[in-house]
Amino acid sequence: HRRERGQSRSGRAEAHAGGRQPGRRRREMSFAIFQQLTQHSVIDACLFASFTSPEATNLIVNKGNCIEVYDVQKRSGKLAFAFSAPLFGRPEALGTFRPRPGGPDHLA
Fold first, then answer.
1. N or C: which end of the chain has fewer CB within 10 A?
2. Alpha-carbon distance 54 to 97, whole Å?
């Protein structure tokens, strides 16, 4: 008894996985997935700058792939949270520069 191509021993036709032709390799794609489960708690770097305005005194804190900016209130000596921003990647170092006199500082 001779079998037809694509039939199993029981005589039923076999379906090829995903409509592939036999003998052809299937290309597979891989993806990287990252999900942060907790907030960063370790400070990697910090510095003082006039970041939010030329007159402001700000404490800029780098925690992993996030930057936090605080306003330093000179009269009371307290910090007030200004904002937080996510970063693409993790900076090795932080620095500031002022591109024009009288303007705010920029981060590098």
1. N
2. 12
